[in-house]
Design brief:
Helix content: 40-55%
Largest sheet: 7 strands, antiparallel
CATH superfamily of the largest domain: 2-enoyl-CoA Hydratase, Chain A, domain 1
Oligomer: single chain
Number of domains: 5
Structural class: alpha+beta
């Protein structure tokens, strides 16, 4: 029953057409020799830097190899005989990117390093990667031979833990027990921690945990978590003995996986018919009511196809859990898979953002650059008329999604129309998975770094640090972090990002606790980082759709005095959702992994404020949450009629013809800015008159700019991170950074025409 902490996310409903992201499995190997050469150079550059890195910095840099995609595989293969640190990083990457043969080469390289690496850190890393990724039947003999020949505790202890995790090798635990008697305090502590992680709490293990958990170190935090596991184990045992239901309350985080053996025993008992009161409970009159309602529906409802008992119960489960609050939910196998994909940033399909009106074709709003659709020649603005021979104007968006999905490597045929073509053309696109980035960034005039973070996923912290490193290499003098519209995600990613900017502070980044339950709390503290980024002005943009993890990052950095917040009050979603996997019996009934996503605690910022907005049963606000900005600036708001008219005009042929005809004159107006002056656009008045629209001239100018931006992005194969001219809060943030740097906006041509006063106090 693995548990994962998430910060959750509210569901945003788009104003216009639905936008969907489809990605792909891996990346297609580029045909162009230039692309391959550039990728090989990138691999060479990373590998040369790896030799100088240690610890977390090493693995953060190593993770960037995977981001190079499948084009990097040939270069990675060539590094499997390089220096030890390079070999382990490249082998790990090949395990993710490569095919069966690549994985076999990577495993062989790791086995060699596990046997003979002179660098102990490389040796241990190779052992752990083998244990996680290798076929147990193949790697166990190798690991056991190394174990039998090893005497160094720094190798023996992690190796023993791997052997126990892979196949419960008894001699591994026995040797850890023997190391408990070591006179070396560090060895004794590490042995005790490793034993506790194998669910062994006998002898000196408990005493070591009790002593070590008070230390403000990584080992101390491990000991504290393992001590909670011990107490949870005892709670479960007492509950089972007394026939009681043990309530969730102890924050076991992901550590409950260490109770897998006990859980398997319970599941075996269930399958043999020895039903545990922990699972069944007693039947109540309300259970009979549920059965009666289902029976009445099945007998009388007009659409018999909707009355299948399993479907009705699934919907009842969804309603039951969601009735608790807006963020708790029941997730069946498909929901669980989609949730994991959204957190990982990986999507299956053709690799494009698309939109569809009620009875119109599917429009490619933007291909995912580097994905199969883009590599196949599909561009922004293309219209998909058919998917595998089926007309898309005759079916709904959900059915289109199902047709675009499919096994990795399979192909989907799209019939596409494009302006300037005499007739539609056919594209065959291979379905794959692409990693959609959660970070977009660029350096702006005045050496101001802009970094937008769209969610807090599994790779977001690594992407964030990589982007930050690149901006600093470009001489960044001040930073603007954009968290507007970021719905949240994983707590661990938020914590790591805050730690990048806080060097030494005694307050916790965030405290988790149930309201009124002092004994059910946990704190995540900062730790001293000599390399923390504290030497430049830092602005954070937030708005009413910045939620959860976004509020933790912005609120904590505000409380620590490290950042100035600009925008509007954040959403106020400060509740902790824990993912709780259902039993194997439930998963069999549901056809795959299913989970409950339950609210268990609230988040509190360093200075003690609760992020969450508390409402009563009627929905009225009892206690307002969210994070208040230091400087209030609103995004530009348009009345509904202007939004509708813009959407109606967006694909007007006259507008598109204008962009085609004047491309050479107007393309630079996006990057250089047009100062919102329609006079900079040739024959603009004639276009406006021909459109016969109620829209303002500025709306038409904005739509021209929209199409110019999309076309430029297609040309360069990369999104623009921001649009300074159209973004009032961003303009204010730029002015604030320049002010702290002692510089003036008018000294930079790109900023000279901006007027931040329009965005204040809206």
């Amino acid at each position: 029953m693995a548990r994962t902490r998430t910060c959750g996310s509210p569901r945003w409903l788009p104003v216009a057409a639905a936008v969907l992201v489809f990605g792909l499995l891996g990346t297609v190997v580029a045909d162009e020799a230039a692309v391959g050469g550039q990728t090989a150079q990138a691999v060479e550059k990373v590998c040369s830097q790896l030799v100088q890195r240690e610890g977390q910095k090493f693995w953060s840099l190593a993770a960037s190899l995977e981001g190079l995609g499948k084009e990097a595989i040939p270069a990675l293969r060539g590094k499997l005989k390089a220096e030890e640190k390079v070999r382990v990083a490249c082998a790990k990457t090949l395990l993710s990117l490569g095919d069966v043969d690549d994985r076999a080469q990577a495993i062989a390289a790791l086995e060699d390093l596990a046997r003979s690496a002179s660098d102990k850190a490389v040796k241990v890393a190779s052992i752990e990667i083998l244990g996680e990724n290798g076929d147990p039947d193949e790697v166990l003999p190798v690991l056991e031979k190394i174990f039998d020949d090893s005497v160094d505790p720094t190798v023996v202890i992690p190796l023993a833990r791997v052997l126990w995790d892979v196949d419960r090798v008894a001699k591994a635990r026995d040797r850890l027990v023997s190391l408990l008697g070591s006179q070396d305090v560090d060895v004794k502590r590490e042995a005790a921690l490793a034993l506790a992680e194998t669910d062994y709490f006998e002898g000196d293990v408990r005493e070591v945990l009790r002593t070590l958990k008070r230390d403000p170190t990584a080992e101390g935090r491990r000991a504290a978590s393992l001590d909670r596991i011990l107490r949870l184990s005892r709670q479960i045992d007492r509950g089972l003995e007394k026939g009681e239901v043990v309530l969730e309350g102890t924050d076991a985080e992901k550590l409950i996986k260490l109770k897998e053996q006990r859980i398997r025993e319970l599941e075996d008992r269930l399958e043999r018919g020895q039903k545990s009161p922990l699972v069944l409970g007693s039947r109540t009159p309300m259970d009979a009511v549920l059965d009666e309602v289902i029976l009445v529906i099945q007998r009388s409802y007009v659409d018999e196809a909707k009355t299948e008992r399993a479907k009705l119960i699934l919907n009842a489960l969804r309603g039951m859990v969601h009735s608790l609050d807006d963020f708790s939910s029941f997730m069946d196998a498909d929901d669980t898979k989609s949730f994991k994909q959204s957190i990982s940033g990986e999507y299956f399909g053709i690799g494009a953002q698309v939109g569809k009106s009620a009875e119109g074709p599917l429009e490619i709003l933007r291909p995912v650059y580097g994905g199969p659709a883009y590599k196949s020649g599909i561009h922004s603005g293309d219209r998909v008329l058919e998917v595998d021979g089926v007309r898309v104007d005759e079916i709904g968006i959900d059915e289109i999604i199902q047709k675009l999905k499919g096994p990795p490597g399979s192909r989907v045929t799209l019939r596409i129309a494009r302006r300037g073509w005499d007739a539609p053309r056919t594209f065959e696109v291979e379905r794959r998975m692409v990693e959609v980035p959660s970070v977009y960034y660029e350096i702006m005039p005045g050496k101001i770094g802009y970094l937008q973070l769209t969610q807090f996923g599994e790779r977001s912290a690594e992407e964030f640090v990589t982007a930050l490193d690149d901006l600093e290499k470009q001489g960044m003098a001040g930073l603007i972090l954009d968290l507007r519209g970021n719905p949240g995600g994983l707590l661990d990613a938020a914590i790591r990002i805050v730690d990048e900017f806080v060097s030494d502070n005694k307050m916790p980044i965030v405290t988790q606790k149930g309201r009124g339950k002092k004994n059910d709390s946990g704190e995540v503290a900062t730790y001293a980082r000599p390399g923390a980024r504290t030497n430049y002005p830092f602005m954070i943009l937030v708005n009413g759709r910045s939620a959860s993890a976004s509020e933790i990052v912005s609120g904590a950095l505000k409380d620590f005095g490290r950042a100035t917040l600009i925008g509007k009050r954040t959403f106020g979603k400060g509740s902790v959702q824990r993912l709780i996997s259902l039993s194997s019996e439930a998963q069999k009934a549901l056809g795959g992994e299913a989970q409950l996503r339950l609210t268990v605690q609230y988040y509190f910022l360093p200075l003690g404020r609760c992020i969450h907005t508390i409402r009563n049963a009627e929905g009225a606000i009892v206690e307002e949450g969210g994070v208040e900005p230091d400087i209030e600036v609103a995004d530009e708001k348009l009345p509904g009629w202007r939004i509708e008219e813009r959407e109606r005009l967006r694909s007007n042929p006259l507008l598109l013809d204008y962009v085609d005809k004047n491309w050479g004159q107007i393309r630079e107006l996006f990057t250089e800015g047009d100062a919102r002056d329609t006079g900079k656009y040739p024959e603009f008045d004639a276009l406006y008159k021909a459109l016969e629209t109620t829209a303002l001239t500025d709306d038409v100018r904005s739509l021209i700019r929209y199409h110019v931006r999309r076309r430029l992005e297609d040309e360069r194969g990369k999104e623009f991170a921001c649009d300074i001219q159209e973004d009032l809060p961003l303009q204010r943030a730029i002015f604030e950074v320049l002010s702290k740097l002692g510089e003036r906006p008018q000294d930079y041509p790109r900023y000279a025409s901006l007027d931040v006063k329009e965005g204040l106090n809206k």
